[in-house]
Fold:
Amino acid sequence: MSLIVKTITRLTVGLILIYGIYVVLQGHISPGGGFPGGIIIALSFIHLLLAFGKDAVLRKLNQAKGVFLASLGAAVFLGIVLGGFMGRQKPLLSQDHFALFSAGRILLCDIAISVMVGTGFFVIFLALVLLNQGEED
Amino acid sequence: MILLFMICASIVAVESRDLISSVIALSAVGLGLSLGFLILKAPNLAITQLVVEILCVIILIRATINKDLPLVTDGRWLFNTIATYLFILCFLFFAYRALKELPNFGAPLMRVSQEFITNGMQKTGSSNIVTAITLNFRSYDVLGEAAVFFAGIIGVLVIIRKTGKIHNSENEE
Structure:
């Protein structure tokens, strides 16, 4: 990729990642939530991969680690929801309105969902990229 | 107006010869849908639709570059199309029978949703009613949806890894 793309990517990748985390963390105050926030986090990694090639990104997050993180996110989400089923009536986080760490289990569920969705989509994209590389040879 | 735009874009997507222009027309359909959601006052859905549309377009462009698939006309094409039409007819028949059973729009069916709107913020503590419903009142549905999503990811990984290995072993031989 050309020099212009690489320079702009260096500036914007951090911003996209922070915006994704922001959308996840205020999912119970403003529109957003776990699913789009996770995809925005995955988009920041994909941006890095498209601009710098797969070697720069595979050092940070290779396929085995990605699958492990996706499974971990899914398992944590399952644990939180089943913990509510087993009879814990007291809400986990406080009930102040519009505060950041509030609204019971919604924030914890959102964080687990965003990890699962983000790493899952990025691992699928990695698998497609590796398949294309294998076919071109 | 937005519906008209979406219909035109989808016709372009189906009828164009080039794969890349089909993908771009598909992304126009997704953009139109996201604008429709915004006008109907559903910002949660609009954000999710827009973001997933961007991701799908990137994946599709990456996957279809240098590859134009011809329309499959040999093999069991006739059986496949007839089976698809029969399935669509069966589904429409059952949907018609099921939809006749629902009560009229506006009868005491809105009792539960009225309860959500008036007491949602007090009971859950979150000011975003959509998130309160999806992750608190109806979170088992979201659990099922996340399970299907995760199964889809693992399925795609298994299939693609096997195809990659077959290609690699063919190249080495």
Q: What stands out?
A: Chain A has one domain: 3-136. The mean pLDDT of chain A is 81.
